[in-house]
Target: TRAP transporter small permease protein
Amino acid sequence: MYKFAERVSTWMARICGVALLVSVAMIAIEVVSRKLLGISVVNADEVAGYVLAITVTWGCSLAIVRRAHVRIDILHAQLPRAGQAALDLLALVSLFAFAVFLAWFATGLFGNSWRTGAVSNSQMQIPRWIPHGFWAAGLWIFGAVTAILIAENIRALLRRDLTAAHEIAGVRGAQEETDAEIRDAQERR
Model:
């Protein structure tokens, strides 16, 4: 399941990268058209805002899988390996609860936008349910990926495999960060 979560998260991040590139291109077109033609060709600011909100939620899944999220580890580093594993599991469970909480309310916003037929207050009049739906989907997938990590972490802890538990949920040290960057660079070749 872990590899599946990683593959899904990686593809979501790639889609986010493409969406951000398209957003940048739209902004460039907007700037050039305003400068040269004196008119706005596209509403790049509106689309860029939606893209930013969506890519943040869609990118969270890869951040948690790759353990690239920010963690404050002052207490964590002082504990024995078993204590660290317990804190790591607590962090995942807390993150899961937060993701589901946000996803629940994002789904309510999506439903409200759908029912009322709300549209953006710009010339584009984009139906609000479209960005709200992508935003909510990203949060639900983030929650699902976090749930998979919790299950994998618990499985490793039940086997008393603290190394595997650390590789799933632990704080990445400086050497581990360096090794991961080298591995990623070699895979890209």
